[in-house]
Specification:
heterodimer, A: 113 residues, mainly beta, B: 116 residues, six-stranded mixed sheet, globular
Chain lengths: 113, 116
Amino acid sequence: DTEVTQTPKHLVMGMTNKKSLKCEQHMGHRAMYWYKQKAKKPPELMFVYSYEKLSINESVPSRFSPECPNSSLLNLHLHALQPEDSALYLCASSRSPDGGIHTFGSGTRLTVV
Amino acid sequence: AQTVTQSQPEMSVQEAETVTLSCTYDTSESDYYLFWYKQPPSRQMILVIRQEAYKQQNATENRFSVNFQKAAKSFSLKISDSQLGDAAMYFCAYRSAMNAGNMLTFGGGTRLMVKP
């Protein structure tokens, strides 16, 4: 298995809703990442998990809450989002925090209404 | 902090012809990696090619090759024999060999259109 799987592919949520994005990989990668990508812009790093521990938080608002329950799974919990949070959320993984190529998922297209 | 610049928002190429996408970067580090990623409408970022800064030889992957000029901090991508499936957003990316976190810094992207 050489894929990063993200679910759901599309999500529409209200500003008072709570939802979660899921990312899964079975390549034995020990680093996992969340990126946010607005339309026609490059991905921007949000969080880095290294050996299931949060190692980097790029000053992301607390309405985004990451979780890494095990080495294969990465979640992003969403609560009280704003319309400007609408974007493509990409998950990626790499062999280790110090090396390896990023493998990306296909992303979740999030719309906040 | 490192920055990556792609000066061509859009490029167009005729099928079967060759096109070159430009990328420049700014860094004070001597050891790093450079990448070209392709993002088709399916949204998945796909690695096209990578280059280690300590290697003088330009990387090549089938129809894709790079021109890596370390002193000039330039990293262009050449696509030969362009195919309709090459149409996508192309992002140049930088990764330090030293920092923890292994994170990528992306350029603004170049949209490549391929004309039949």
